[in-house]
Structures are given as C-alpha cells and as structure tokens.
C-alpha cells in the first residue's frame, strides 16, 4: 500500500488493530530509513534525519493514501467509505487488515464477508487485499513450511482469493535460522506455479528487503 500510494495510486487502508499514528510512523520509517524508535523518541532526530522526515511529510500531503483505524469498523462502513473515495479520487486499491476482526464487527461469517467483498470489488472496479492469520499451532506441530490449509478459515479464503501470499519466518520455529529471514510463499495464483521469494525483515524500519 505504501508503494502504491507513493507511486500516486489512490489507496485506502482499513485497520482496526493499529492506530493511525502507528501506521504513519511505520510508513515514514520504511520510506526514510529512520528507525521507528528514533521517530518516536523526544528529540531523537539529528539534522539529516529531520530533513528526510520533513521532505517525506511534504510528500505525504500529496500522497493519495487514506487510513481508517476505527476499532469497531464494519464492512458496511468500509464499503460506504470506498464508494465516496471512488467518486472523489478514483480509488484503485483497498487493504483490510485482519478481515476476521472486521467480519466479527459486522456480525457475519468470514465466508459471507469475503463474498460481499468480491462482489463489491467488481461493482466499483477496485483491487482488494485482505490479511488473515495462520493456524500457528498447526504449523509448529507439523514442523514444516506453511501451506494453504494452514490458513485460518482456509476454505473460505481460498474460495474467493485470486492470489494467496504467505509470509513465513522459519527462525520463529528454528533457533538455527535468523528470525528475520522471511520466505514469501506464493501459494496460489491464477497463472503462476507456486514459488518462494527470499526476503529479510527489517523490523526497526517496518519493511522487507531482498536478501
């Protein structure tokens, strides 16, 4: 979403589990390579870092990224907001963090929520990204790389998702591996075979880089 907005693609994030301030700090850290803890510290910026952040703040004034972090946000309110953004800025991309939480807030099952989202995306011609948790216990017990069926509510997710990406950090389960080494597993795609991309998590900057 950050890359899309920086490139000028109107985008919206709906995230009931992170505050708007936390999202803003993560985006600024990833773009400027100033650690998040420095951004949050009082008087923690040196002159060069302050210049970078000022320049990024100027960019943000024109960056078409819209954030809603209401904890009780529902699917209906998300759709209403997206319709307004479609009319005003020609919204192209929407991300829903923790679709299971949003479904619960909406009083519906995940499958029904995804069905409504799929129809809505076609209706107003937008791309939709949703995040979902893994069944962590099953991955640890199996002792192997996660597969589609390890996704929580995997049947519903796989029914409606065109593409499924799974972020796997083997070091969380294996002490011999760097915990920041990440496998981005392309588990489902309309025309590509399953494959894996090797990345490195930079937690202090809230981003991934090529290894």
Percent range for β-strand residues: 15-25%
Task: Please mark out the parts with pLDDT under 50 across 5 or more consecutive residues, or reply none.
Answer: none
Main sheet makeup? 4 strands, parallel
Strand and helix order: HEHHHEHEHHEHHEEEE
Strand order of the largest sheet: 2-1-3-4
**Cα shape:** globular
Separation of the first and last Cα atoms = 21 Å
Number of helices: 9
Helix content: 40-55%
Structural class: alpha/beta
Arithmetic mean of pLDDT: 85
List strands and helices in order, with pairings.
Elements: H1 2-6, E1 11-14, H2 20-32, H3 36-40, H4 47-60, E2 65-68, H5 75-89, E3 93-96, H6 99-105, H7 110-124, E4 127-130, H8 136-142, H9 154-160, E5 164-168, E6 181-188, E7 195-202, E8 207-210
Description:
The chain is an alpha/beta fold and 211 residues long. Helices cover 42% and strands 19% of the residues. It has 9 helices and 8 strands. The protein is globular and about 50 Å long.
Which key terms come to mind for this protein?
211 residues; alpha/beta; four-stranded parallel sheet
Summarize the structure.
With 211 residues, this protein is α/β, with parallel strands linked by helices.
């Amino acid at each position: 979403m950050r890359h899309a907005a920086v490139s000028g693609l109107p985008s919206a994030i709906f995230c009931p589990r992170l505050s708007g301030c936390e999202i803003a700090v993560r985006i600024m850290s990833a773009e400027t390579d100033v650690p998040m803890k420095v951004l949050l510290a009082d008087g923690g910026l040196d002159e060069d870092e302050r210049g970078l952040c000022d320049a990024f703040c100027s960019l943000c004034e024109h960056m078409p990224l819209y954030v809603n972090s209401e904890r009780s946000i529902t699917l209906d309110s998300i759709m209403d907001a997206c319709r307004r953004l479609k009319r005003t800025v020609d919204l192209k991309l929407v991300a829903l963090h923790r679709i299971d939480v949003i479904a619960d807030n909406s009083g519906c099952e995940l499958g029904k929520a995804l069905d409504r989202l799929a129809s809505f995306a076609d209706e107003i011609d937008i791309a939709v990204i949703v995040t979902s948790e893994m069944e962590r216990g099953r991955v640890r017990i199996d002792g192997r790389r996660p597969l589609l069926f390890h996704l929580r509510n995997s049947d519903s997710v796989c029914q409606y998702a065109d593409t499924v990406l799974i972020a796997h950090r083997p070091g969380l389960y294996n002490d011999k591996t760097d915990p920041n080494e990440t496998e981005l597993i392309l588990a489902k795609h309309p025309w590509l075979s399953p494959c894996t991309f090797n990345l490195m998590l930079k937690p202090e900057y809230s981003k991934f880089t090529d290894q």
